[in-house]
Protein: VOC family protein
Organism: Erythrobacter mangrovi
Amino acid sequence: MIGYVTLGTNDLARAAKFYDLIAGELGIGRMMEFDTFIAWGEPGGGAGIGLTKPFDGNAATVGNGVMVAFEAKDRDQVQRIYDIALANGGSDEGAPGPRGEPDANGMVFYAGYFRDPDGNKLNAFLMDKVS
């Protein structure tokens, strides 16, 4: 089980504003905060996310092939998270919508993709009945 995921940032204050808004939409807040690191989540809850300035002092860079996914409660919340991201310094990587074909139970992967202000790739998703 994943406890948390950490992404690098070159501007912790700017990134914190971005993630505060997304975390707020998901109903979670900051659970840990230091001068160079902030984490959002619930102690004892699901996986959290952290942001940090790299320990080695070098610039934070984007991981090629790395993506963090936020599980939404419904399609409307996927849209709200995507909209929050784009309105607060994020960039579009694919508007919300179904991806792929429904599985044997009639469920489809529904997601919106975006990048944070540092370029880290994220998405908001859920498995949902085909509508």
